[in-house]
Amino acid sequence: ARAPGMVQVWAELDGAQSDRLSIEVYETSDITYCDPARVNRSVWSDNFNRVTLESDCGEYRQPGVAGLRYTVTELQPRGGIFDPCLDLYVYQGDKRVRTIREEGCGDPFLPAAAPGRDEAVVKYQLRAFWDLKGEDGQPVRPGTYTIYGRFYLYYDPVVSIDVNVLSPDGTFPPPIPTPTPTPRALCTPVFCP
User: What pLDDT, on the 0 to 100 scale, is given for residue 133?
Assistant: First the structure.
């Protein structure tokens, strides 16, 4: 493992050496879970990659900040430079509440050892934060919100997690009941007055 900072990389073959290239190695992005037994995480995978989106907690009290981490693990190297990008959005139902990041390419981090990831090499780990506010800068109302992450890999996989936003006193709004429809009378010419 290398310490964070600038490093030189090059290739050698049959005694010939390529030009040296400077790249920056970043620290891993750790996340502290509110409840390690119940991690708020979603995973998408195919034969080549595993994409993970997770938050530090599943519930947040206003005012607060949701800590997010998104990771792309390359299960089978495909060659070339692997540089995924990501969009992050917050929705309530089908309404977009906040754009956290759009068309944002991330900075790579040095992989960290983690349970269940021994057989794969973590290529990128990124952090983001949601301040529990809408696009207008005002705190969102208590309720359930969905954070969507759309990754730009070979195609665009989407992962999502739900978070609950509580009021400042820690309460969560009860669900709004669906109104019962009023039945309409079946009317035919014979039975209508």
Answer: 95
